[in-house]
Amino acid sequence: MSGLLGVAVLSAVGFGAWKLHDTSTELDALHTQRALQADAEQAALNYATGAAQMDFRDLESWRSRLTANTTSALADRLNQASTSMEQIIVPLQWSSTAQPIAAKAEASGDGTYSVDCFVSVRTTNAQSPEGIQSTATYKLTMDSSDGWRITEITGVGTTLGDGETIPAK
User: Does this model's pTM top 0.90?
Assistant: First the structure.
């Protein structure tokens, strides 16, 4: 009888150890996933804040922030879009400062993350020298396996550029 009790105790201890290990593994995976989401959110907020800051007197710095950490195909499309935007920015004497508000990342399962970003933007221009406060929204697709390189940019609920999303090709 005591042998049977010993086997039962050992079985219970073994089962408990297995469950503890299984739970620990699941917790580690959740912590890793949350850390990756936080990295994606921070990288996306850094990008969005930089892209929203512009000064008609220093468009090269803005263009550099706009194309930073993007794929080469996306950078080419953003450079083309920025050239068109300069036709508006310079005559209006457009200047914007930006502060990050929040970001929310969602994993796609293949190492990419979709991140919705919100940035507070204060804009002054020739038509509104007192300034206008607004919120810029960005939806970025980022690749965690490529240093969080941005592969696509759209607006949240809208699009940027020529009315289409700006995918990497």
Answer: no
Residue type at 169 in one-letter notation = K
Report yes or no: 25 and 33 within 8 Å, Cβ to Cβ. Answer: no
Give the per-residue SS3 of 38-106. HHHHHHHHHHHHHHHCEECCCHHHHHHHHHCCECHHHHHHHHHHHHHHHHHHHHHCCEEEEEEEEEEEE
Q: At the top level of CATH, which class does the domain 2-167 belong to?
A: alpha beta
For 10-52, write each residue's pLDDT tens digit: 666 666 666 665 666 777 778 888 999 999 999 999 999 999 9
Which tokens sit at 127?
A: 């038509």
How far is C-alpha 9 from the geometric centre of its chain's CA atoms? Answer: 51
Backbone angles phi, psi at 128, to 5 degrees: -135, 70
> CB–CB of 135/121 below 8 Å?
yes
